[in-house]
Amino acid sequence: MSQAQESFFLARRSRKDSPHTTAAYRRDLAGISVLLAGAAGCAPPALELAAVGAGALREAFGSFAETHAKTSVSRAWSTWNQFMNFCVADGLVAGNPMGAVARPRPAASMPKPLRGEDTPEQLLSAVASGERKSRDPWPERDLLVVGLGLVTGLRSAEMRALLVSSVVGRPGEQRLHVRGKGSRERSIPISAPMEAVLGRYLASCRARFPQARFGRESALLLDLRGEPIGRGALQYLVSCCYRAAGIHDRVPTGANLHALRHTFATRLAEDGANAAEIMALLGHANLNTSQNYIEATGREQRAAVMGNRTYRALAEAAGVGGEPAVGD
């Protein structure tokens, strides 16, 4: 089994998967392999691929589902389905048994923006004024992180992967060069206010770490020691900013930093951006994902409902002059 899995990853090298994707695949394969080995009474490295059939996989996925969310089970199922298809193609097994393993029905994925019309503005104001209290406050960095989420829609991994050289272009025409999921690259324009935020942040870095050398290939976002910021530290920073601004109760459950990205996309849709534009700016692989933001705003649905002729009769019955406005 372990040799087959390494061959699987070797075959995927030409797909140029991102390190994040590869790590997720390895976790999914390892997690189920441990359960399969436990049922077979052997250590994972000694597990034989030929001994893994539909029954063993059903049992392993059943145990896995007891301690993992639907999305995790669904992702693991997809990973193992791809792995077993590879094994069939390479002649390692006669057939793919994953068709006999139940897969959770995926829940409808809906955007989770910050709740409240003025919440993003309240958050930015609180962070800029230094309302986040800490032993070593760094408002320039806090504002950059929150600003990147709200006006560029970057994912956590994309923020952490930014380099100083990711900021390209002349002043007034700068853009962020971003490498996203699946190693897909995109370029996001930034405005003068974000350029100013970036400039103040870089100046604060030089003041905080005078002995450090900030080259073009240095990480853009740093922790308090001057090292590239980690995933946990970045999530904690954003969570603290929410609490400092008094908006932690307006953050959808489980969203945290991703709520900033969803707020960015939702506001794009509300302001008239089409699905293709949203797809390009957010780095989506599927146009349907981008379309979700347009549907979530409800603007087109609301316009259709308000166009119902019965509303005119209701307006007359209620003694209301004219037709109801779409934005009311």
UniProtKB/TrEMBL annotation:
Family matches, as Pfam families: Phage_integrase (PF00589)
The record's Gene Ontology biological-process terms are: DNA integration; DNA recombination
Read off the CDD domains from this record: DNA_BRE_C
- State one molecular function term (GO): DNA binding
The lineage's top-level taxon is Bacteria
Q: What keywords is this UniProt entry annotated with?
A: DNA recombination, DNA-binding
* UniProt domain Tyr recombinase: residue ranges: 109-306
Domain (Core-binding (CB)) spans 1-88
Q: What is this protein called?
A: Site-specific recombinase XerD
Lineage here is: Bacteria, Bacillati, Actinomycetota, Actinomycetes, Pseudonocardiales
